[in-house]
TrEMBL record:
This is Cryptochrome/photolyase family protein. Coiled coil: none annotated. It comes from Asticcacaulis endophyticus. InterPro entries: Crypto/Photolyase_FAD-like_sf, PhrB-like, Rossmann-like_a/b/a_fold, UV-DNA_repair_photolyase.
């Protein structure tokens, strides 16, 4: 009895049951490059190339290990261009007795596979994705009975559960759970980042780059230089490089932003963890080992582990708990169109230009650029969440809806009314000026809020706070902002509002 075992482009992991339990003599593994996945948003060309190159290398490794792999390339003339279509085609051709898939990372595919279950006349089994450290049931059990979910408490629960950074008495190492006060420093003058690895392109990757160049001429982004890791072995090199050269300063510069430094001390691992090349637990354990060996300070290691063990698992929990309605939430009633400069970086705002340029060049920008530059601008300017969501899902090599949507709609845009975070991450130019050297090279003046060259973030910030006062006024961490606004007096408040209107007008005209 042959089982057809389906592996999606972000499931490239031999530890998944779908591979572990395969009978190499009889079963067939199906992998397919399909138009539907490549076009459901207009992905960055580097993202498509990374996923296809990773898939092809993974398929090659499986074949070399003795598995039978049915690999459908994008330009296969019989390609039906949907994952379910390819499953049905394989079932017809191979005469299999059962189909197995690992649960997908996006709601639309969950629905598609459940629908296929009702149409196929053989069983289709959907297996859990065991790469995650918190299963759906565990998350539900943790959330049960809580009026409000907060990441910090989930993270503590996970630290204890996985015995990460815990001392012999079951207490957090260093006597506290969170070392944020030692982290998140502004960049020192002249801060540069460690050199990063660049992986050589082999014949498989070069073929993929030619395919993507030919098939996606209108998609955004620079395809080359292309130096992503495309195998687990290469991704592990990236992990080791990060642990040795970047982790010790990760915490300190976690929130720093520097002109022409897209990576600073960040790990670049999200794309590799998300496709399955490296496992979240092994990443956390390696980081912990560096701390225990005295190679990295506790504050850096704790800050790093919190991102993976805490935030990454937490956002997945939120996604599956609140979908499908989550994707349509827009509690702040934001209806502006996404400005064109998100696609071409053509703006005089140096901070936004930097974040978008890094994105177009590398299919990457680091967390604070995503949250406090492009995300913050969209929040303050009132851009419609769905358009912002589709942009984030398209442009980053690590973007899959389960992780991108709660980060965008919840964390950055507060469109979920506080499910993800109790208060919006809204900030004016002051924050950007403190945490970066961007303002020094900007057309706009960060110290001005109302003049013709005034930093757009300043007036937009106050206008945003004022527009949503009813919603946010009770929040203790925002009281100070409202007290400041009230002290300004009517004339100044009117000038701020007028400048915010002018900024929105310039934005709509494509002149910001
Ligand atoms: P590092 O800064 O080195 O962090 C280490 C790891 O922690 C990351 O590799 C990632 O696995 C994890 N991590 C850190 N922060 C988060 C977070 N908030 N949520 C989930 N995991 C986290 N991450 C994605 O993986 N895919 C996305 O599509 C994505 N979209 C985002 C959209 C917005 C608006 C924001 C604000 C954040 C988004 N993030 C997303 C989270 C985070 O920005 C990226 O994981 C990170 O920038 C990837 O770079 P890195 O691997 O160098 O991360
Ligand atoms: C992102 C992506 C792309 C561009 N192409 C494919 C593909 O052709 N075949 C495939 O199996 N997966 C692809 N992926 C990843 C899927 O979109 C991903 O599995 C789902 O979004 C679920 O997370
Ligand atoms: Fe960004 Fe304003 Fe600074 Fe310019 S002045 S870089 S727009 S924060």
């Amino acid at each position: 009895m042959t089982v057809l075992r389906v592996i999606l482009g972000d499931q490239l992991s031999t530890r998944l049951e779908i591979v572990r339990t395969a009978d190499r003599a009889k079963d067939v593994i199906l992998m397919a490059e399909v138009g539907d996945e490549a076009t459901y948003v207009k992905h960055h060309v580097k993202k498509i190339a990374f996923v296809f190159a990773a898939m092809r290398h993974y398929a090659q490794a499986l074949t070399q290990a003795g598995y039978t792999v049915r690999y459908v390339k994008l330009d296969d003339p019989d390609n039906s261009h949907s994952l379910t279509g390819e499953i049905e085609r394989a079932v017809r051709h191979l005469g299999v007795s059962e189909v197995q898939v690992t649960e997908a990372g996006e709601w639309r595919l969950k629905e598609a596979f459940e629908d296929l279950q009702t149409r196929l006349n053989i069983p289709l089994t959907i297996l859990p994705d065991t790469r995650f450290l918190c299963s759906h049931d565990e998350f539900a059990a943790w959330a049960y009975g809580k009026k409000e979910l907060r990441m910090e408490f989930f993270y503590r629960h996970m630290r204890a559960r996985y015995n990460l950074l815990m001392d012999a008495h079951g207490k957090p190492c260093g006597g506290q759970w969170n070392f944020d006060k030692d982290n998140r420093q502004p960049p020192v003058k002249g801060l540069t980042a460690p050199k990063r690895l660049s992986f050589k392109k082999d014949a498989i990757t070069r073929e993929v780059l030619d395919l993507v160049r030919a098939r996606f001429p209108d998609n955004i982004g620079r395809l080359e230089p292309f130096h992503f890791a495309v195998t687990r072995t290469q991704a592990l090199k990236e992990l080791d490089h990060f642990i040795t050269h970047c982790l010790p300063s990760f915490g300190t510069y976690q929130d720093a932003m520097v002109t022409d430094e897209p990576y600073l001390y960040h790990s670049l691992l999200a794309a590799y963890i998300n496709v399955g090349f490296v496992y979240p637990l092994e990443v956390c354990q390696k980081a912990e080992a560096a701390y225990r060996a005295g190679a990295a300070p506790l504050s850096a290691v704790e800050g790093f582990i919190r991102q993976i063990l805490g935030w990454r698992e937490y956002v997945r929990g939120i996604y599956w708990r609140h979908m499908p309605d989550y994707a349509d939430m827009n509690v702040l009633e934001a209806h502006e169109g996404l400005p064109w400069f998100y696609w071409d970086a053509d703006t005089k705002m140096h901070c936004v230009k930097q974040a978008v340029t890094h994105t177009l060049d590398h299919a990457y920008s680091h967390h604070i650029q995503r949250l406090m530059i492009t995300g913050n601008f969209a929040l303050l300017a009132g851009i419609e969440p769905r358009q912002v969501h589709e942009w984030y899902l398209a442009v980053y090599a690590d973007a899959y809806e389960w992780v991108e949507l709660p980060n965008t709609l919840g964390m950055a845009l507060h469109a979920d009314g506080g499910i993800m975070a109790s208060k919006p991450y809204a900030a004016g130019g002051n924050y950007i000026s403190k945490m970066s050297n961007f303002c020094q090279s900007c057309h706009y003046d960060v110290k001005d809020a109302t003049g013709e060259r005034a930093c757009p973030f300043n007036s937009l910030y106050w206008d945003f706070m004022n527009r949503h006062r009813d919603r946010f006024k009770g929040h203790h961490r925002l009281n100070y902002a409202y007290a400041t606004w009230d002290r300004m007096g009517e004339a100044k408040q009117a000038a701020y509002r007028a400048r915010a209107d002018a900024v929105r007008h310039l934005m709509r005209q494509g002149e910001l």
